[in-house]
Automatic annotation (TrEMBL):
GO CC, alphabetical: nucleus
Region feature (Disordered): 70-97
Pfam families tied to this protein: At2g31720-like
Record-given protein name: B3 domain-containing protein At1g05920 family
Location relative to the cell: Nucleus
Length: 242
């Protein structure tokens, strides 16, 4: 740690070419210090000197350096040391960024949406079918809030999902009528309902969901891509097998 602090103070003291010249060897011979300084202050080296430093780094340290054009961000040496002191598996885990891009909608679905004069196509989620989703007594497909990627409901639909039958407000949920296109582009009319739970909620496609299941012979653990789109103000769902 003492050596690191000394190196940090040395780098901080270099403010111009004259100050840098005072600490370099003549003729120029690359050292470990030059490897660290290049990553922090590449402007003090010529391209020829960089080539020598890069060769030194590959030979003695086992890694090459970025060229001046690519080394635009000057990392503080304190950051470098923290990353280099970490175990290899931790540094790798820190650098990897896992992305989950939306799947591409098939041309058949795109054509069908165009035929309906639909728009606002949005990928909603990738849904795994559980036993409860195929239970004929439940007759619903659950879409948990934490698996839904985006907000897609209008203010009117959100309000409608809160409505219940009867004047007391304690009857069954009314739901929002929606249209569903299955993987073969067959159209079904279902109800979208919202079940509130503690700190979360689930959206359910209900009423005629059993018809969708039996027609498509859906099975447990099968996965579906689910999109939404609109025709005028009507809400549609697209289901396609993964």
């Amino acid at each position: 740690m003492r050596d690191l602090k000394t190196l940090q103070e040395l780098v901080a003291s270099i403010t111009d070419w004259e100050a840098f010249n005072e600490i370099t060897f003549k003729p120029f011979v690359p050292k470990l210090l030059d490897v660290a300084l290049w990553q922090h202050a590449p402007q003090f080296y010529s391209e020829e000197q960089f080539a020598q430093i890069n060769h030194f780094s590959k030979l003695h340290l086992g890694f090459g350096l970025r060229s001046r054009e690519k080394n635009t961000r000057k990392r503080p040496i304190s950051e470098m040391s923290k990353e280099e002191d970490m175990p290899e598996n931790q540094t790798s885990r820190k650098k990897i960024k896992i992305k989950h891009p939306s799947p591409k909608l098939s041309i058949e679905f795109e054509n069908r949406v165009n035929e309906l004069n639909g728009g606002d196509i949005t990928f909603l989620m990738q849904k795994k079918l559980y036993r409860s989703d195929l239970d004929t007594n439940k007759n619903r497909l659950s879409m948990p809030r934490n698996e839904i990627r985006c907000d897609f409901l209008t203010e009117t639909e959100i309000a409608k999902l809160k409505e219940r039958e009867g004047t007391s407000g304690k009857g069954k949920l009314v739901g929002v009528e929606v249209h569903v296109l299955d993987p073969c582009l067959r159209e079904f009319t279902l109800l979208l309902k919202k079940w509130d739970m503690e700190n979360t909620y689930t959206l359910n496609l209900s009423k005629h969901w059993n018809n969708v299941v039996s027609t498509n012979k859906f099975e447990e653990n099968q996965e579906l891509y689910i999109w939404t789109f609109r025709v005028d103000e009507k809400l549609y769902f697209l289901l396609n097998r993964v």
